[in-house]
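User: Predict the complex with PBG.
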Amino acid sequence: MSSTTLRRLRRNSLIRDWVKETELHPKNIILPFFVVEGKGVQEPIKSMPGVYHLSIDNLIKDLRSAPQIHSVLLFGIPNKKDKSGSGAYKKEGITQKAIRALKKEFKDLIVISDVCLCGFTSNGHCGIIKNGRIDNDASIKALAKIALSHAEAGADFVAPSAMMDGQVKAIRQALNKKGFKDTGILAYSAKYASNFYGPFREALDSAPQFGDRKSYQMDFRNANEALREIEEDIKEGADIIMVKPALAYLDIIYRAKQKFNIPIAAYNVSGEYTMLQGLANSVGDGRDRPLQLFIEVLTSIKRAGADFIITYFGKEILRWIK
Ligand code: PBG
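Assistant: Here is the predicted structure with PBG placed in the model:
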């Protein structure tokens, strides 16, 4: 006779639910949105099934129809790009307008804004280019200016994603100097130069026009270095840190959780989303296949140690949790 008794706790769903260790909560989910100029725009993003470019009016409609959403991450897409990415810090820039509109419309929504240059520069890089190279000092100055303009518009958290050295400190100082002590920083701390960003770059039309992002985003062969990046960002004033992507980097999330006592966000990025949608469709029996697949994946990200998960599947997951 087997002495193993582990199956007793798996006997039926009532017991399984009762003993489960990990559970997704609506507050764990951060929903990204791609906001464009204009009115009445709802343009599907080809490489990301179920994800759209939305104008501000439609973004508001979308959020009204999904009251379970606690927090959003905004990516503004300008009509025009230029060399210095000046659209990123204009008072009437697309991101700034979207932040103002959401903060006016929704009392209980946490608005987080992506702070970067790549969606606004004609060369598609995340920093300022001088003499053919990324100039770190000029870049963090620009990032601080962008973050400040988002804070002025009412953002609760700014999320610098450019992977420039010292970006968190520059932003923290700029915010404090202008009296935005309460505006938080969700730092993309361990952001890897990943092949999983492809669909996103199509959405933002932000693929670098020359070279790649390997001189600022992390090398995927490194893990210890991620802990250094995170440690630096915490010292510089980050309130929440992020690991990105999530799925191929669960070890990083786990190690960050063991080592640091700070909320951790994980970005389940565009390529991971599209890959899972593809798998769900190819197996395709049963209509809730994508849902079951995403529940498993997002739960694994939380199990590894993430407090927040940024996911394009957020709406469906929130509906399911409810
Ligand atoms: C750029 C940025 C990227 C993502 C978020 N901010 C991609 C990149 O570095 O090209 C990726 C998000 C995704 O793939 O879902 N600052």
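The chain has a mean pLDDT of 95.
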